[in-house]
Amino acid sequence: MGLNFVLLLVMVATNILSLYHLSSTVQSPNPPPPVPVPDHLLRQLNTIRATINHLTRHNPSSSSTTAEPSSAVPRDLILHSQIGPIASSCHNHPDLLHRYMNYTPFSTCPYDPDLQETLILNGCHPLPRRRCFSRTPSKPPSSLPLTHFPTSLPDSGVIWNKYSCKSFACLSQNNPTGFDLNAQRSSLQKYTSELDLPLTQFMQLAKSANSPIRLGIDIGGGTGTFAALMKKSYNVTMLTTTMNVNAPYNEAVALRGLVPLHVPLQQRFPVFDGTMDLVRCGRAVNRWIPLSVMEFMFYDVDRVLRGGGYLWVDRFFSKAVDLEKIYGPLIGKLGYKKVKWAVANKTDPSGLKHGEVYLSALLQKPVSKS
């Protein structure tokens, strides 16, 4: 009997202590801090909020379509957003976008090439359409070159207002790499080092592999010399992507009778899947491009190349260690056949200082991918 009474007292005491502990925990004035929200979730939340704000501002519901648009948003921007998509990156630069769309409809467009380039280079591409008339040179050339390698390009085919140079002769003196057409032409036809791949050798390699070359894209092709050589020598049609950064590259390409594509490197190529025989990455494609942009670009190259088509990487430069650990494996993910893979030291002052190298590579896409 006494033992049972002692056990009963122990049980009651234990329960009382448990209740006291629970009550002190619930009533504690210093509760544990909440679990912090990860940064990536906060960024996603901000993106969702921005998207909702955009939809409510630029795609009003049917009940509010009769309301007057906000004075801060150009009327034509609202109209365009209802009939066509606007690139998501445009909304990251609303002030620039509003300036671009703030014009008088059915009149002459503002002369704002710098504004357009800034928007495009920041990912706002394609730009919204505008209902205005584009400016043209005041005295257009009376005749256009009939050859892809004219002795000179007509200065009157360009609006020079935004450029420090006011003629192609000036550009040739100050930027011979881009505007001395003959100098760049010779560099594509001669073999002076292991980095070179003359066009004759490339076309012979393609012929030996029974892979005809008819259509292609030259990424960052400057004034279009590669496209001009391919057209003149082999009747191959090349599209040249280029931007008017400090010089009228697009006009130069067009004046040579070639097709310029005014698109940035981060833009999806405006051609259909599996239609290109060749994609060449010129010197504009280098280590200064963000890695994620480069990765998406290479996979878009794969999208447009047909089976058996070629990716030509011409003098890509980076630090030697980065080529080995980053860019080489990135290109290797494509699973292409290495027809040529040549690496050599970059011997200019910058290359020597930073341990940089050049890569020239010719890669062939597998004929079939399932």
From TrEMBL:
According to the UniProt entry, the coiled-coil residues are: none
The beginning of the lineage is: Eukaryota, Viridiplantae, Streptophyta, Embryophyta, Tracheophyta
- Name the chain's protein: Methyltransferase type 11 domain-containing protein
Q: Where are the transmembrane segments?
A: none
Task: Tell whether Signal is among the UniProt keywords.
Answer: yes
Print the keywords alphabetically: Signal
Q: Which SUPFAM superfamilies match?
A: S-adenosyl-L-methionine-dependent methyltransferases
Q: Which InterPro entries did the record assign?
A: Prob_Methyltransferase, SAM-dependent_MTases_sf
The signal peptide, as residue positions, is: 1-18
Origin organism of this chain?
Gossypium trilobum
